[in-house]
Automatic annotation (TrEMBL):
Gene3D superfamilies per the UniProt record, alphabetical: Globins
Name assigned to this protein: Hemoglobin-like protein
MF (Gene Ontology): heme binding; metal ion binding; oxygen binding; oxygen carrier activity
Keywords: Heme, Iron, Metal-binding, Transport
Keyword Iron recorded: yes
Species this chain originates from: Cytophaga hutchinsonii (strain ATCC 33406 / DSM 1761 / CIP 103989 / NBRC 15051 / NCIMB 9469 / D465)
Cross-referenced PROSITE patterns: GLOBIN_FAM_2
Co-factor requirement: heme
Leader sequence residues: none
Pfam families linked to this entry: Bac_globin (PF01152)
The UniProt record lists the keyword Nuclease: no
Family named by the database record: Belongs to the truncated hemoglobin family. Group II subfamily.
Length: 125
């Protein structure tokens, strides 16, 4: 039997909680807060749509904005490996705060490092 998609095992309520907690951390993170210049609620809304799709739920992001093309969409923002690590740290903290099993937290977090590192587009100074 095929395993149910991570989105459905996590649930919409926990996904919403994850996005809220994650951006609460990102917007005060000295390393990466400057990368998030748009309206916080707009950013959170897009992230909810993207994560729904990224985690195996409905393709809400694509329906509204087209193919995610995440690397291309992030190219205007200089992102270093240190920035990606700071982003992952915020995501790890946000995931760690969720009321789900440790196994689900581990599985969820494991989805992010390859994507975060793929966004790196600038050498460290």
């Amino acid at each position: 039997m095929e395993k149910e998609a991570l989105y459905y095992r996590l649930g919409k309520e926990n996904l919403d909680l994850l996005v809220d907690r994650f951006y609460d951390l990102v917007f005060v993170n000295d390393q990466i807060a400057h990368l998030f210049k748009n309206d916080k609620e707009e950013i959170k809304g897009k992230q909810r749509l993207f994560l729904t799709q990224f985690l195996g739920g409905p393709a809400l992001y694509s329906e509204k904005f087209g193919h995610p093309q995440m690397r291309a969409r992030h190219m205007p923002h200089p992102i270093t490996e240190t920035d990606a690590i700071a982003w992952l740290h915020c995501m790890s903290q946000a995931i760690g705060s969720l009321p789900v099993s440790e196994a689900l937290k581990d599985e969820l977090f494991a989805r992010f490092p390859p994507t975060a590192m793929f966004m790196v587009n600038k050498e460290e100074q």
